[in-house]
């Protein structure tokens, strides 16, 4: 059931909650004050690496005469797109690198390699999702409007199709994000002129992405245009699948809680921290997997401090886990396969009404004492 009183659920007094929040504020302050040249060098190296890998991948795709070369190029391109999406685009758009005052690596100027405009996503994600994380009826990321992810969401007959919807969402994840951001932006603006401007911005970005991936780059490959077209489509698919897995493992495995709108009443910053802790999950990852996921294996730390640089999340995690032990607050973490399989199980269970097949068939449900 969704939580209305977060402090009571966590068995914390009002003083404990505020003390917990003060200690997290100290973590934030310590990290923010220590940011400097090494962090700036990190993100610049990542951008150089990603762009170099992108060029090398495209040369392999267009120039190789073997199937192995095409596969190597395609997977390299998919990895480059994943890094651009999560470790760079997602994190830059959160303002994690705004402190550098570099106009090329700034949340207001970065445009990612996705069909949805990053400006639309910044409102739907940075504000609607991160400020109101997992609050029913407020956070639109709860199921993205197409999936039932908690029994607090009323069951509808079309939820029977949600395993298929889930599969489709994974394959076209960037389009789902674009649609989600577009509708959030349409709800935010008030005049018809503003709504038309939002639509024009959306169509312009979609047009640029389609022309780049499916017309211009294949055309530059001349007689090998089919190889490039197939590689671009495959790389986009693989990037979509990976981004979907990472996001779902951070938001929908067992142990992640949802909240009622009442939980927002008189919410202090400390209560907000506590809601972020309870409403996210991590998966275990070494340095390579962490980098490949945009450091979103540390989803808890990301929700606590979304605008702190991702390369610091491992360091932050040690202090957060220590605080969780001190205040006896759950810290939800598991292996990547385990976390993902839990989301799949939940997806299938919630495709059915409460009570399962018996409820669906209209038969009385027997409860064994």
TrEMBL record:
Residue ranges constituting the Fatty acid desaturase domain according to the UniProt record: 69-332
GO biological process: lipid biosynthetic process
One Pfam family here: FA_desaturase
GO cellular component: membrane
A GO term, aspect molecular function: oxidoreductase activity, acting on paired donors, with oxidation of a pair of donors resulting in the reduction of molecular oxygen to two molecules of water
Protein name per its UniProtKB record: Acyl-CoA desaturase
């Amino acid at each position: 059931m969704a939580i209305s009183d977060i402090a009571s659920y966590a068995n914390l007094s009002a003083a404990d909650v505020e003390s917990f929040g003060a200690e997290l504020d100290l973590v934030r302050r310590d990290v923010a004050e220590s940011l400097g040249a090494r962090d700036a060098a990190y993100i610049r190296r990542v951008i150089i690496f990603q762009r170099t890998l992108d060029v090398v991948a495209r040369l392999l795709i267009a120039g190789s005469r073997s199937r192995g070369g095409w596969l190597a190029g395609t997977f390299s391109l998919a990895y480059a797109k994943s890094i651009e999406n999560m470790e760079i685009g997602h994190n830059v758009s959160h303002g994690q690198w705004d402190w550098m005052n570099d106009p090329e690596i700034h949340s207001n100027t970065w445009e990612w390699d996705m069909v949805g405009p990053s400006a639309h996503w910044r409102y739907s994600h940075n504000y609607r999702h991160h400020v109101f994380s997992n609050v029913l009826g407020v956070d639109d990321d709860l199921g993205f409007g197409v999936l039932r992810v908690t029994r607090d969401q009323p069951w509808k007959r079309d939820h029977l199709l949600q395993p298929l919807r889930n599969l489709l969402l994974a394959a076209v994840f960037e389009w789902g994000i674009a649609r989600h951001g577009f509708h959030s932006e349409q709800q935010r603006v008030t005049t018809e002129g503003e709504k038309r401007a939002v639509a024009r911005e959306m169509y312009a970005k979609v047009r640029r992405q389609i022309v780049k991936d499916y017309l211009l780059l294949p055309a530059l490959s001349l007689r090998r245009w089919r190889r490039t077209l197939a590689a671009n489509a495959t790389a986009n698919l693989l990037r979509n699948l990976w981004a979907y897995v990472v996001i779902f493992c951070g938001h929908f495995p067992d142990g992640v809680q949802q909240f009622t709108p009442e939980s927002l009443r008189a919410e202090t910053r400390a209560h907000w921290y506590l809601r972020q802790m309870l409403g996210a999950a991590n998966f275990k990852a070494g340095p390579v997997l962490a980098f490949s996921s945009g450091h979103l294996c540390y989803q808890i730390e990301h929700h606590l401090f979304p605008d702190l640089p991702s390369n610091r999340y491992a360091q932050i995690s040690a202090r957060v886990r220590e605080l969780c032990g001190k205040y006896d607050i759950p810290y939800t973490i598991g292996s990547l396969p385990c976390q993902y399989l839990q989301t799949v199980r939940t997806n299938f269970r919630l495709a059915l009404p409460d009570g399962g097949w018996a409820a669906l068939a209209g038969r009385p449900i027997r409860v064994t004492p």
